[in-house]
Amino acid sequence: MQLVSNDRFRSVEHRVPANKSSDTARVSVASFFNTDVRRSERLYGPIPDPSKPPLYRSVTFPDFIAKFNSIGLDGRVLDHFRLEDDGPTRLAAAAHHV
After folding, report:
1. Per-residue DSSP letters for 13-33?
2. How far, in Å, are 12, 16, 72 from residue 26 at the CA level?
3. Can you tell me the distance from the alpha carbon of 15 to that of 9, in angstroms, rounded to the nearest whole number?
4. Contact between residue 48 and residue 98 where contact means Cβ atoms under 8 Å apart
């Protein structure tokens, strides 16, 4: 959501502390709504906004997941798709999104 909203909605690192009680089990539930996204070549990027240039480059879901899996929990995957603060990369991306 942070990438698509161009930082309007910020995500936080989610860390769940383990239960302190030994008699209460921790339950996690994974939900999948579209199992074919790994083959998708659709680009996801910031929604165009003429008043704010994009902060992230567009990325496919397979590329996002590959980067996520390569860094594990040692960093934030979004940082790898953030554009430079200035310079030709960001200016070109801004021109492409307008």
Report:
1. ----PPPS-TTS--------S
2. 21, 10, 22
3. 19
4. yes
Tell me how far apart the alpha carbons of residues 3 and 18 are, in angstroms, rounded to a whole number: 29
pLDDT in tens, 64-80: 888 988 987 777 888 99
Give the residue ranges of DSSP H helices in the chain: 61-71, 88-97
> Is the entire prediction scored with pTM above 0.90?
no
Tokens of 31: 């939900």
Residues in the chain: 98
Contacts 24+ apart (CB under 8 A), 75-80: 76/13, 78/2, 78/3, 78/11
